[in-house]
Amino acid sequence: MGVVLGGLTSFAAQFWQGRASERTETRRGDRERAEGRRAEALTHLIDFLSAVQEAERVAVDRYHDNLTDEAWQARAKQAVDTLWVAQKTIHLLCPSEVNEAARRVAFAVQNVIRDGPRDPGAPQDEKVWACISPSRRAFLDAAAEYL
Predict the structure, then answer these.
(1) How many CA atoms, within 13 angstroms, populate the side-chain half-sphere of residue 5?
(2) In whole angstroms, what separates CA 82 from the centre of its chain?
(3) How many Cβ atoms are within 10 Å of 3's Cβ, its own excluded?
(4) What pLDDT score was predicted for residue 80?
(5) In this predicted structure, what is the pLDDT of residue 138?
(6) Are 109 and 52 in contact (CB under 8 A)?
(7) CA angle at residue 136 from 91 to 130, to 5 degrees?
(8) N or C: which end of the chain has fewer CB within 10 A?
(9) How many CB atoms lie under 10 A from the CB of residue 105?
(10) Which residues of the chain have pLDDT under 50?
């Protein structure tokens, strides 16, 4: 009887230890996947900010330096396209609050490139940034909260 009881106790202890090890491995795997997703999202958030920055430069060149030639138009088209592609990756990877904030920034930048800062006075570079700044700040806040 003692041998059977000892065997059952040993089996139960090994079974529960195995289950605990499996749960630990599962939690470790979950943490690693979450950290990988966070790193990927951070990379795409930075790519989006880089695209916003380049599009801002395009707008400043247009309204501060009065550029409208074909080279500027091609640069503007490329900057807006890059901006929207970067925004779409945020849509795929981030929560809706971050995505909506990114969309607002993208529309603000696109609109200021197309329509200007709506205030014809100088200095235009500061007015371009003033048009974009509120939506950019909201995006940064939403991204920081997410991360």
Answers:
(1) 2
(2) 14
(3) 7
(4) 95
(5) 95
(6) yes
(7) 145
(8) N
(9) 26
(10) none
Instruction: Taking each helix axis as running N to C, give the angle between helix 70-93 and helix 2-64, from 0 to 180 degrees, rounded to the nearest 10.
Output: 160
Greatest extent of the chain over all pairs of C-alpha atoms, in Å: 97
Listed in sequence order, the residues at least 6 apart from 119 whose beta carbon sits closer than 8 Å to its beta carbon are 127
Amino acid at the residue 85: V
Instruction: Give the chain's length.
Output: 147
**Scanning the structure block, which residue is given the tokens 């939403």?**
142
Residue 21: other Cβ atoms inside 10 A: 10
Q: What integer best gives the mean pLDDT of the chain?
A: 86
Kind and range of the H or E element at 74? Answer: helix 70-93
For 3, residues 6+ apart whose C-beta sits below 8 A from its C-beta are none
**Token digits for 93?**
């990877």
Asked if 106 and 91 count as a contact pair (C-beta separation under 8 A), the reply is no
Q: Give the per-residue pLDDT at 104.
A: 96
